[in-house]
Amino acid sequence: MKNKVRVRGQLKTYLQWPLLMTALVVLMNLAAGFVNSIAGLVMSVFTIMYAAIAFWIYIYGRKKLLGGLVEFSSEYAWVQKQLLSEMALPYGLADNEGRLLWMNEKFKELLKTDEKGKNVRKNLQVLFPEITREVLASKEPTTLHTSYGTSLYRLDLKPVFLDLEQEQNLGIEEIQEEEEKLIAVYLFDETKIVEYRREIDNQKMVCGLIYLDNYEEALESVEEVRRSLLTALIDRKISKYITGINGVVKKIEKDKYFFAIKQMYVDQLRESRFSILEEVKTVNIGNEMAVTLSIGLGMNGENYCQNYDFARVAIDMALGRGGDQAVVKDGARIQYYGGKSQQAEKTTRVKARVKAHALRELMETRDRLLIMGHKMADIDSLGAAIGIYRIAMAMNKKANIVINEVTSSVRPMMERFQNSTDYPDDMFINGVKAMDIADAATMLVVVDVNRPSITDSPELLQKIKTIVVLDHHRQSSEIITNAVLSYVEPFASSTCEMVAEVLQYIADGIKIKQVEADAMYAGIVIDTNNFMNQAGVRTFEAAAFLRRCGADVTRVRKMFRDNMADYKAKAAAISNAEVFEGSFAISVCPSEGLDSPTIIGAQAANELMDIAGIKASIVLSMYNGVVYISARSIDEVNVQVMMEKLGGGGHRTIAGAQLRDTTLDEAKEKIKNLIREMIQKGDLS
Predict the structure, then answer these.
(1) Given this model, what pLDDT does residue 685 score?
(2) Is 448 known to sit in a ligand binding site?
(3) In this predicted structure, what is the pLDDT of residue 584?
């Protein structure tokens, strides 16, 4: 039965047409005989002849017609097979496991096989590692980009569902009967296309800006007659650096430069880690202060104007992070290079006075202030918030401090305000309450943080339009973009120091109460580790101002003493510290039974820096399923750069990060790998 050819469809109807026409002729014959018997008789003769011929064609001619169709289909299948075999495009068929069952000549030539295809590893997953089991199991067409040998290919995989009885026409002998799907494999050589695209990208223009960070200060540190020479040497260094990569540089101000280069040279700059950052520091003609500069690059924008806008954003990021570094904004991606040195403290308070007046003008236009710090607020965040609260009270503005989680580090200070009749019951509110009372006449002041994701109530940033940011941490790629006033000073020791300066300029006659002075003074003491970290002239001036307002050193010290459990945990973290690579102390702080293990971890990291030979300390703490990392250094290692690579940030000597969905052991190993990588690249000494 299987050898019989079954006729169906339009062909069957076509072969039945003579019989249908015979019936029509018979009807015509009957009609003619009804009109005229003689005519009907004559027509009957022709009808019989037509019927005989029609039956002969249907019975005997049908076999010859079908034979011709079978012969044609066989020749067509052979031609089709030859076309597939000789097709200029590499093409093959594979099974569900990725085994190549058949391939055309181009595919064999690509894989360098013999005529029988015996010398090839017949598995797509071995030939092209990009192909996974999930890709092979997919019922939808899949496109991958891969390489084989020296060429690049676009690999198209399309599932093909066939009648298994017909697959022998392609010479497939290894197919199993239970399989229902084959995978058609197409390879498109895109080596030239990729090369041309890369060449086009290489020819694109990259806009750049170079700003001298400390131009005025460097000039003041050298004799007046030699200042022009210092400027000329700096100009020559920068001009030689840019022209060395076939770029064009133009001085637009006394301390600002614009340059344009081809994109092909950006990788060269990255590999050299923007060597001009270090070269310009070698310019010394007697100046006491080394010159540093910042670089901002913008690339891969839709047009030249957007590249320039990217460069402006990049240079702002570099300056906001303390200068002495290069920032590359490649579309939405931002990369940082350099930033190893500490930004010099500016002794002038002009900027503080200008920002204070701007803050006053904004506050005068609003009826209510909400003051918010970062999640798990520390004493610097709380102290700065209280300083802004005092400003609002002095201007007769209703104000609230937003804090969701009260840690053990700030609870003693908060209780002094909550138990005092001088302050309203709603001085401290949570984020839910803040969302309810926020309206168009509300201003939000964010202190001690400039990253929206780690603010105490990020949703407030979307609801409130007037936002002010005061912070001393270096900016990262994630910043509060809708702030109408941003005062970020990375050289400041703490946000409390900045707020103390603002208090002195924002209005005359503001009287700070002792408890408020204690809170702000405590913020400075804790963030500077008792004036040992990043404490400058203005830090001591701010502390002296707070002391005159009634801050008491003894009272602050007694308030922030550790309890026995916290002290034992800190001691355990120090005693279990591991010295990695000879100069990096890494430890884990136990968190069981502690209210704020992250605070204890930070204190342990500070203590580890008192050990001789330790360049940086990293202490890990597990809290609510999140690994908190505290990193500290003195002056040899920029821990802020290290923590940024883990998604965190901070200062050059004080930084931190948070890792989710990981264990302490995994986090510890990740930090070790990061240290090895940064040492290898020269980012760490």
Answers:
(1) 53
(2) yes
(3) 92
Would residue 377 be called left, alpha or beta, if left means φ above 0 and alpha means ψ between -120 and 50 degrees? beta
Angle between helices 514-527 and 495-506 (to 10 degrees): 140
Sort strands 442-447 and 368-372 into parallel, antiparallel or unpaired.
Answer: parallel
pTM, full prediction = 0.60
Q: Is 258 helix (H, G, I), strand (E, B) or coil?
A: strand
At residue 167, the pLDDT reads 47
Give the H/E segment covering residue 297: strand 293-299
Rounded to the nearest 5 percent, the helix, strand and coil shares of the chain are 45, 20, 35
- Out of 147-151, 476-480, 496-500, 549-553, give the one with best mean pLDDT: 496-500
**Residue 76 has what pLDDT?**
65
Q: Mean pLDDT check: name the lowest of 67-71, 405-409, 574-578.
A: 67-71
- String of b and e for 341-370 (b: at least 16 CB within 10 Å)? bbbbebeeeeebeebbeebeebbeebebbb
Averaging pLDDT over each range in 15-24, 131-140, 220-229, 387-396, which range is the top one? 387-396
132 within 8 A of 155, measured Cβ to Cβ: no
Of 264, 393, 272, the C-alpha closest to 682 is 272
Does the annotation flag 610 for ligand binding? Answer: no
Most confident of 58-72, 87-101, 158-172, 655-669: 655-669
**Largest pairwise CA distance in the chain:** 141
Q: What is the rounded end-to-end Cα distance, in angstroms, of the chain?
A: 84
Contacts of 95 (CB under 8 A, 6+ apart): 101, 174, 175, 176, 179, 182, 183
473 has binding-site annotation: no
pLDDT given at position 11 = 61
- Written as six digits, the tokens of 537 are 């002239």
Q: Which two tokens stand for residue 653?
A: 């000597």
534, 539, 563 from 632: Cα distances, Å: 12, 19, 23
Annotated binding-site residue? 378: yes
Please report where in the chains the tokens 């990255």 appear, as a residue: 270
Cα-based angle 100, 101, 104 (whole degrees, multiple of 5): 85
- Residue found by looking up tokens 């540093």 in the block: 292
pLDDT tens-digit series, residues 331-349:
888 888 876 655 555 666 7
299 vs 212: CA distance, rounded Å: 22
Tokens 């008792």 sit on residue: 530
For the chain, how big is the Rg over CA atoms in Å?
A: 40
| CB contact burial 442-454 (16+ within 10 A = b; e otherwise) | bbbbbbbbbbbeb
Place of tokens 């203005």: 538
Q: Which pLDDT score is estimated for 624?
A: 83
Determine the pLDDT at residue 397.
92
Q: How far apart are CA 525 and CA 543, in angstroms?
A: 9
527 known ligand binder: yes
- Please check the confidence at residue 398 and state whether its pLDDT lies above 80: yes
Q: Which of 654, 360, 672, 634 is nearest to 492 (CA)?
A: 654
**47: its two tokens:** 């009808």
State the pLDDT at residue 119.
Answer: 46
Q: pLDDT-derived band of residue 178, with 50, 70 and 90 as boundaries? A: very low
Distances (CA, A) of 556 to 412, 495, 524, 599: 10, 18, 11, 17
Cα separations (Å) of 237 from 41, 210, 247, 279, 329?
118, 12, 14, 8, 24
Alpha helices in 560-644 (DSSP H): 564-575, 597-608, 639-644
Q: Known binder of ligand: residue 651?
A: no
